[in-house]
Amino acid sequence: MAESRISGNQCAVARQPAVLLEMAGVDAGYGLSRILFRVDLRVYEGEVVALLGRNGAGKSTTLKTIAGLTPPTAGRVLFNGREISGKASYVIAREGIGYVPQDRRIFADLTVRENLEVGRRAGGKTEWTPERIFGMFPALRELSIRRGGTLSGGEQQMLAVARTLMGNPRLLLLDEPSEGLAPIVVRTLAEHILRLKEEGVAILLSEQNLLFTRGVCDRAYLLEKGRIQHEGRMSDLANDQRLLSRYLMI
Ligand SMILES: Nc1ncnc2c1ncn2[C@@H]1O[C@H](COP(=O)(O)OP(=O)(O)OP(=O)(O)O)[C@@H](O)[C@H]1O
Ligand SMILES: [Mg+2]
Q: Ligand 1 centroid to 58 CA: how many Å?
């Protein structure tokens, strides 16, 4: 047998991580205007992936297409090997994709704890409870009886992510999570993302903030005018000045 072995019965051949999400040749848009053109994108189990691009590049549209809010007009979206394109957004959420929109949309008149309860869903791979959430986001415990509308931008972002976790997602879609947050708050957000990764939640996040993404993402896609222009390791992209200035104007 050609397979090389190391101590005991540990196999030296690394196991290929499974593809969790796959977009293949996806077109999408609004009414007659086509925004995404043959988008190919993958997220593997346990990965944090960045979707980078300038304003209007189509980042939100890509995430909305995965979440079932902007159905594809061509191509396929597969989650865990099953086709999800064309399914209703609540069905896609139930299959294990949690979506945090760019405007966060927390309930202003509900308390933090009530916002979490709204996100609760039975079943799923991991069981998130408010207690487990408060263990991960201690600041939310302090705020649990405050109304959502009175929270700061960073606190609202934390609550939006936490509420989505209550649906037990295997994949989180975060649309520009660092937008409008102070650098110190962005650092806390980065720590939370790395802890979620340790918990086995895969993440696809859209961003324009390179400093933030280079600290948390494994791989990155560059989007321009609805087309993927580059795909690679985050560390390689962060050092590629030609690509950064061409597609992100950095
Ligand atoms: N509901 C809509 N109806 C029509 N066109 C839309 C709609 N939403 C977005 N668009 C258009 O689609 C294109 C891509 O927008 P999208 O919001 O996906 O970009 P983005 O990369 O998320 O930008 P930003 O960084 O500003 O959030 C833009 O030209 C935008 O005007
Ligand atoms: Mg956007």
A: 6
